[in-house]
Write a structure and sequence with these properties.
Elements lengths: L2 E7 L1 H4 L2 H13 L3 E6 L2 H10 L6 E2 L2 E2 L3 H26 L3 E4 L10 E2 L11 E2 L7 H9 L3 E4 L2 E3 L5 E3 L2 H12 L4 E8 L17 E2 L1 H9 L7 H13 L4 E6 L14 E3 L2
Parallel strand pairs: 1-2, 1-11, 2-8, 5-8, 11-13, 12-14
Antiparallel strand pairs: 3-4, 6-7, 9-10, 13-14
Helix pairs in contact: 2-4, 3-4, 6-8
Bound molecules: adenosine-5'-diphosphate (ADP) and N-acetyl-L-glutamyl 5-phosphate.
Family: Belongs to the acetylglutamate kinase family. ArgB subfamily.
Main location: cytoplasm
Enzyme class: transferase
Amino acid sequence: MQKLHVIKIGGNVIDNSENLHRFLKDFTALKGFKILIHGGGKVATQISESMGVSANMVDGRRITDIDTLRIVTMVYAGLINKNIVAQLQRYGTNAIGLTGADGDFIRATKRPIKTIDYGFVGDLSDKSINPGNISKLLEAGFTPVFCALTHDGEGQLLNTNADTIASALAVALSTLYETTLIYCFEKKGVLQDINDDDSLIKEINPERYEKLKTGQIIHSGMIPKLDNAFAAISCGVKSVIIGHSDDLGQLKGTQTFGTRLTN
Ligand SMILES: Nc1ncnc2c1ncn2[C@@H]1O[C@H](COP(=O)(O)OP(=O)(O)O)[C@@H](O)[C@H]1O
Ligand SMILES: CC(=O)N[C@@H](CCC(=O)OP(=O)(O)O)C(=O)O
């Protein structure tokens, strides 16, 4: 099986042009098949509020009414995606920028209303992604760059968390490639003390994860990220790394970085 890296960058990396450029250079230097997924929640919130549309997050997920959907479509699929693609072209990666609607690559279902109406938010299932189609792009020499938008097949775009898209892509493609899923963000990895970059936890298994949650060492956005990551490992993804976007260049041969998840 050939190797594939599925790499996600979060909003704090996108928002810092120095970090973003360093990351995109290291991403280009990484050999073999690769897919990039970007978030951009932070930029979407800033632009949304500057347009007088207040951002409303519940459990780390954006309540996406029609005005918000219009804004995130412009910000994720336009502003952020096209800038990343242009920078990758500059560094020598033949990137192709996509939403899940392009090529019908990622189909989602609008989240059903239970206690909260999330609006135009899409949930993924194990039928959401056809790995064969994405593989054709890879084999043709393109590097797909996905933003956090999916579609329902009926003409409706949906906002889907970028961590979830990364995990679902890694799982679907692990049937064809030996897949490593990497979440890059602005910290060294999962930390024992969130304010101390030297307190990196190098390895976490599900048992330790439960303890870290109970002790509130892990909280907020890190909980859904790790839930997605452990789900990926139990569904065929070979390894998951969570680390700083500046450290991607350390990934060579057996050398790794950040926090490694094991089962
Ligand atoms: N133990 C921990 N170690 C590192 N980060 C943590 C930890 N617990 C909570 N976090 C928080 O999780 C955040 C990352 O999740 P999130 O904001 O969803 O990331 P992203 O920017 O990749 O979308 C960090 O910015 C940090 O505030
Ligand atoms: C439904 C939902 O919450 N979607 C996310 C998509 C962007 C994202 O995931 O961005 P980060 O990775 O930078 O947080 C949002 O709109 O914030």
